Amino acid sequence: MSKDSEKINGFITGLLIGGVVGSALAMLYTPFSGKKFRKKISSKADDIMDDVNDYIDAGKEKAEEVIKESKKKAESIIDDAKKKIATN
After folding, report:
1. Quick check: 6 pLDDT over 80?
2. CA–CA distance, 87 with 73 (Å, rounded to integer)
3. How many structural domains does the chain have?
4. What is the pLDDT of residue 32?
5. Could you tell me if 27 and 44 are in contact, meaning their C-beta atoms sit under 8 angstroms apart?
6. Closest by alpha carbon to 1, among 9, 17, 13?
7. How many CB atoms sit inside 10 A of residue 41's CB?
8. Which of 57, 61, 55 shows the shortest CA–CA distance to 20?
9. d(Cα 43, Cα 40) in Å, to the nearest integer?
10. Model confidence pLDDT, tens digit, residues 10-56
11. Can you give the pTM of this predicted structure?
12. Which residue range forms the structural domain that includes residue 37?
């Protein structure tokens, strides 16, 4: 993985974490009754879990892509090494 994509992934991770923390703090400082507040927290928690699950799925897909690319590169290196050995 290149340094640029690592930076982008770090930025996205920070952005998501910041959004979650900001949302939680905003909800804690809003003036609602207990029942309404609990309902709002529950709804927000569901939204956050959906976002987290989407992020996890995207991470799994990216990891699978990286694994496939790594396998292809490893196979290419092994093939090159076998050819060099065979010619010597």
Report:
1. no
2. 21
3. 1
4. 67
5. yes
6. 9
7. 14
8. 55
9. 5
10. 788 888 888 888 877 777 777 767 778 778 778 888 888 888 888 88
11. 0.48
12. 3-87
